[in-house]
Amino acid sequence: MTATIARKPSRPRTRRPVWEERPTPVGQTGKAVLLGLLVLSVLFPLWVILVTSLSSRETIAQAGGLVVIPKGIDTSAYDTIFAGGAVTRALWISTLVTVIGTAIALTVTVLAAYGLSRPRSLGYRWLLAYFLLPFLIYPPLVPKYLVVTGLGLKDTIWALVLPPAISVFNLVVVRGFFQGVPQELLDSARMDGANDFLTLARIVLPLSRAVIAVVGLFYAVSYWNVWFDALLFIDRNDMYPIQRVLQSYLLAGQAPHTSGGTSGVTMPPTESIKMAVVVLTVAPIVAVYPFIQRHFIKGVLIGAIKG
Questions:
Q1: Which is one Gene Ontology cellular component term of this protein (predicted)?
Q2: Which of 66, 105, 151, 262 is deepest in the core (most CB within 10 A)?
Q3: What is the CA radius of gyration of the chain?
Q4: Are the CB atoms for 277 and 86 separated by under 8 Å?
């Protein structure tokens, strides 16, 4: 009696589409070189900015400007920036605008996207057309300025928070994600007596962490990089966000109306001060991005494809 040996079923091979060619060693090498050059083109300017901000006057003079190879560490540029007080105050203003603005924008976007994702909502077609109209026709600048100044928001952080409180692109992405939530889950929650707000908080939002993280990053970067609205609506130097102070440093080499007290003290080179302000401007966003990187591609793709 012969014993039969059970064979494991072989995994089916994934066939390539007919239009996709088999990768060649030359093609793979070319792709690796191209990706390496792209990564280098991104990292090299950041490296130059960081090294220049930590270089002394002699090192910058020997390099003729921007420094590529470091020769020691000199933090005098950062000491001068924080001693003046303008950058510290601007960082606080930008942080406040980013936190408050992102919270308000996410709340408005989630509520609007959930209402527009439900076909039985009252007047959702007209509301969807209303939201999509500024996406196709950008509103003029003069009415925006008149509205903000007419409401008394000039020279306040609300002039930087409220005008960009909702993005149509982010609204469409979140709405597309919400449309992909199974209707059976919503119907079961309604049968259990949950209203729309409870359904959104207990069912929809836990399933939408990826897209919420991505949209939150979009809003946070937008608020942190606010410059044009600050140029229009903020005239007080003590209300400048970090981008306006960065502009002052890049144009004049110093913060606007920096307090005195530096007479007789050797100032760091202008190049190192400019690069130090750039580092302080970019560092917070760079530090936050790795924590939500795993949600980034998933959230954008799912939110844009579903619905």
A1: plasma membrane
A2: 105
A3: 26
A4: no
Interatomic CA distance for residues 293 and 72, integer angstroms: 33
* 43, two tokens: 């990292």
pTM: predicted TM-score of the whole model, two decimal places:
0.77
- Better pLDDT: 97 or 249: 97
Band (pLDDT 50/70/90 cuts) for residue 195 is: confident
CA atoms within 13 A of residue 172's CA, in its CB half-sphere = 13
Smallest Cα–Cα separation from 269: which of 129, 63, 60?
60
How far, in Å, CA of 211 to CA of 204, rounded?
Answer: 11
User: How far apart, in Å, are the Cα atoms of 157 and each of 9, 175, 237, 248, 300?
Assistant: 64, 29, 13, 19, 29
The rounded distance, in Å, linking the Cα atoms of 53 and 27 is 39
* Domains, the chain, with CATH or none: 32-74 (no CATH), 84-302 (1.10.3720.10)
Ramachandran sector of residue 210 (left: φ over 0; alpha: ψ -120 to 50; beta: rest): alpha
Instruction: Return the closest-CA partner of residue 47 out of 61, 31, 62, 67.
Output: 67
* DSSP state at residue 66: S
- Give Cα 264 to chain centroid, integer Å: 41
Phi and psi dihedrals of 116, rounded to 5?
-80, -15
Q: Closest by alpha carbon to 200, among 88, 119, 117?
A: 117
Residue 55 predicted with pLDDT over 70: yes
Residue 259: pLDDT above 50?
A: no
For tokens 């993280």, what's the residue?
213
* Number of continuous H segments (helices) and E segments (strands) in the chain: 16, 0
CA atoms of 215 and 167, how far apart (whole Å): 10
Closest CA to 98 of 281, 298, 292: 281
Please state, in angstroms and rounded to a whole number, the distance separating the CA atoms of residues 272 and 55: 7
Residue type, 139: P
Q: 3-state class of 156 per DSSP?
A: coil
